[in-house]
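Quick look at the format.
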Amino acid sequence: MDLPPLTHEPPLYRTRLAEAETVNRALAAAFEREFGGPHMRQSHRELGRYENTWIAREAIPEAEPVLALAEAAAHHILGRDALRCIFWFNRMQPGDRTARHNHEEGGELLSGVYYVETPPACGDLLLYPAEGVRRVRPEAGQMLFFPPRLAHAVEANLSDRLRLSLAFNFGPAE
């Protein structure tokens, strides 16, 4: 896959998915199709909701353009060919937020997020590098990468619509 422009503003890398509007429409519909189905499980019950919704990769082929870009970017950023990718969806209803956390467990090398649906006021990503809080406004079609040890959170979704993102971690292939 040809990698679109990848900008680096430490500790953050950014890129965008080509044809994001079409991909996102199909991916959001596929997520709703699979939500609650046999290929789905949820984890990390925090703040009154499950933060992570896991859907088997083979059950949601609509995610492949996003995962292909994430994998190509991760190989480029890390300079490694042999990586494993795990991914999950973060479904935030109005009022939902994600508490401060990191992804240090499991030997992860790189974490990231791709934004599928981002209504206005749906909650900024907050990063906590040593120099202070960094705020990132989510945009549909945008993909971000950061070190797994970097603490981060998501502000409350103050919109009246669902905010949907796909998050991922990359670690050494086993």
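Next, a different chain entirely:
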Amino acid sequence: MDPWNVERRDEAMKSLLTLQQRLVPDVIETMKGRFRILRQMYDMQPVGRRTLAQVMDTTERILRGEVDFLKDQGLVAVDSSGMRLTPLGESLLDALGEVMGILDGRADLERELRRVLGLRAVRVVSGDVDENPEVKGDLGFTAARFLREVLRRGDVVAVTGGTTVAAVAARMPPVHPGNILVVPARGGVGERVEYQANTIAADLAERLRAEYLLFHVPDRLSEEAYRSLAGEPQIAEKLHLIRQASIVVHGIGQAIAMARRRRLPPEEIAVLEERGAVGEAFGYYFDQDGRIVYQQHTLGLGLGDISGMRAVIAVAGGRGKAGAIAAVAKAVAPHMLVTDEGAAWEILARYKGCGDQGEGAKTAEIHEIS
């Protein structure tokens, strides 16, 4: 089925679940319970039964019965290192994730968010990453599953830095389409190593058994340094490869927080505040209407590069990022937005009925950060 046509898929699944609930009422609760076990096991695998029982606040006896059933169905494997999902179990977990979204009403929330932001596809995971950091794993899990659906042999996949995109790489199921190249979307020297785009590209490539490219240039450059580096043959060659990307997975930052993280001078942060910057992606800073109000000198992908890509996947969550997510969604118009309930409800509260529905990047007076 077309991975983009989520509305038709959700409606068909909702009809089936309604019939099941009427015919066999207790099957839904059983399914929810087993989904929780599979989901928690996936995050912790390999994991022992006692540890899993403690985390799930249940008894070993109850858990043993459920695990035995899942094992008999070929969904779980048990060895000396602990319990883990089989490939069949991982596939079922993917399918059940969509079912759970329909059962708890998130499918309706996704539909409304698509309408308000004017996006093609949205997935909303349970919870709020601002209140529960473990939700970041669910964001990564969901985005990774969608990436797997759209990935094709010969693709060049670009990734940005950040903790949420790192979670996507960490939860990418092992798939091997063949002849894949993973590249950092832009430079990132100066950030924590584990959250740099280079590190994430290498991690994702390992999961995909793919090749990867490293791009060791600072995230923030002066105009002189930008021109000098861009003219270097080795840098230009790598930039050419990065701009061949057909898929990009990117995070979304809060404008002022990102500016401070990149150690922008106070006077430049003051300009961002004056211009109402709320969101950041790819070195661009956007106001609440999705207009570019600041642009940073950076080597890597820009908005012009991503406009022709086959799949642009944005992933970010947390109620505190609602304004940033909405602003970047309007500017970048990703094909898929993966977010959480905290951000989704806050976005609807702020933007529903305002009439701004994904018009794309509108450029106000642009200032370049030198």
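The two ends are 47 Å apart (CA to CA).

See the schema section for token definitions.
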